[in-house]
Amino acid sequence: MIGALYFEFFKIGLFSVGGGYSSFALIQHRLVEELGWLTPAEFTDVLTISQMTPGPIAINAATFTGVKTAGLLGGLAATAGYITAPACVVSILAHMYFKYKKMDIMQGVMSLLRPAVLGLIFSAAVSVTTLVFWGGRQISLAALDVKSVIIFAIALFALSVKIRGKKISPVWVVAVSGAAGFLAALLK
Fold it and tell me: Using CA atoms, how far apart are residues 155 and 54, in angstroms rounded to an integer?
């Protein structure tokens, strides 16, 4: 299992063009839908915990998934697997970019990668939205988790509004949401 975790996250890291958020579509497809290592609910938990903890989001997701699947060694294997490919690729690309950055072909490649990366990130956002709002069930008004929609709307509003010329820090939004969830669980 340790080797499988390393290899799966190596492949995810190799094709996670665009960073952490773009990797979530790959993680969901491979680990939830194909291998069944995570349930849809566990995948949502991975996303949530990865957002809340310090560090790069995809590495946090790899570590969390590895620990859940195979303990501490699994977490280390998944993390190492995710880091290996991008570290090699970015070293090669950085060398090539700085050597050839003025060439039209390099600019053409970069301009075509941007929309693909946006597509990967948007796909992950749609997947997470359906998991959070409908819990992986069929999308219908009856299955909609109204509480989640309200929390989402409040958080979105809080992150977009300015108070005395400053936006509210995402750290505060996460902290208040977590505290509210903790209090709600205590009151049950």
Answer: 20
Q: Is the dihedral of CA 119, 122, 128, 133 positive or negative?
A: negative
Neighbouring C-beta atoms of residue 28, cutoff 10 Å = 22
Cα torsion 65, 70, 75, 78 to 10°: value is -70
pLDDT at residue 151 in the model: 87
Q: Which tokens go with 174?
A: 């996460």
Q: Is the pTM of this model over 0.70?
A: no
What's the pLDDT tens digit per position in 77-105?
Answer: 999 999 998 888 888 878 887 887 777 77
Q: How far is CA 24 from CA 126, 160, 183, in A?
A: 11, 24, 29
Q: Which residue, 22, 25, 32, is CA-closest to 65? A: 32
User: Which residue in this structure is represented by tokens 């060398």?
Assistant: 95
Instruction: Please name every residue paired with 113 in a beta bridge, in sequence order, or none if there are none.
Output: none
Give the helix ranges, DSSP H, for 17-103: 20-27, 40-52, 57-100
> Residue written as tokens 């992150």?
159
Query: 3-state class of 16 per DSSP?
Result: coil
